[in-house]
Amino acid sequence: MAQDAAGAVGARVSPQVDSLIRAAQGGDQDAFERLVRMYDQSVLRLAMNLLRSPEDARDVYQEAFLRVYRNLHTFRFDCSFHTWLYRIVTNICLDQLRKRKVRKEESAVVETADGPVDRMDTFEEEAAHADPERSMWNQQLRRRIEDALGGLTPRERMVFELRHYQGMRLRSIGESLGTTEEAAKNCLFRATQKMRSVLGDFV
């Protein structure tokens, strides 16, 4: 996971961030905007990695900072601002994933002027002529992974992606989800078992 101005998850608030938060809590609009600029890329990157949709990621980005603006006065400096912010982002992403579950996940096929197109195919077009066999294998693997992820509960998917795509430690994942490290570990174990079951001979 990128180590930017946000710092390591779980670390205490840095003096610079501390002063910006206190100023923003006091109504300083410029301080709040500077705070947003410090974290905007990490929030957008996290949302994109968790939801795999630019549109949904932008929605989460806007909703997250709106919630930060409305609730910044409740921040008590008993954890890092980064952890507090990630908790907001992951909660919104969880809501999005639950909505997808209700909709039985979005179809990978989209209608275009030239007829139905599988979105997964577009990722492989450039490499297809170079190594058709490898391209086909990669495409099958990607679809199988998407199927496997779709079979997880929203919380299992969240923990799995935070661990394997964001590289977060289980303790930090627990903090971000408002639970314990042990609960996050158990959730990751269940998710991993389900993924292995679906992926079968691919792993």
Order of strands, main sheet, comes to: 1-2
Assembly classification: single chain
Q: What's the number of domains?
A: 1
Q: Beta-strand percentage? A: under 5%
How far apart the termini lie comes to 24 Å
**Structural Rg:** 19 Å
Give the mean pLDDT. 80
Major sheet attributes: 2 strands, antiparallel
Number of helices: 10
CATH first level: Mainly Alpha
Are there runs of 5+ residues with pLDDT below 50, and where?
1-11, 118-128
Number of strands: 2
CATH level-four homologous superfamily name: RNA polymerase sigma factor, region 2, helix turn helix motif
Summing up helix and strand content along with how strands pair, one would put the structural category as: mainly alpha
Secondary-structure element order, N to C: HHHHEEHHHHHH
Shape: elongated
Here the CATH topology equals: Rna Polymerase Sigma Factor, Chain: A
Helix content: 55-70%
Structure commentary:
The chain is mostly helical and 203 residues long. The protein contains 10 helices and 2 strands, in the order H-H-H-H-E-E-H-H-H-H-H-H. It has helices at 15-25, 29-51, 54-71, 81-102, 119-122, 125-128, 132-150, 154-164, 170-176, 181-199, and strands at 109-112, 115-118. Strands 1-2 form a two-stranded antiparallel sheet. Helix 2 (29-51) crosses helix 4 (81-102).
Provide keyphrases for this structure.
single chain, 203 residues, mainly alpha, Rna Polymerase Sigma Factor, Chain: A, two-stranded antiparallel sheet, 10 helices
Task: Please specify the SSE layout and strand pairing.
Layout: H1 15-25, H2 29-51, H3 54-71, H4 81-102, E1 109-112, E2 115-118, H5 119-122, H6 125-128, H7 132-150, H8 154-164, H9 170-176, H10 181-199
Antiparallel strand pairs: 1-2
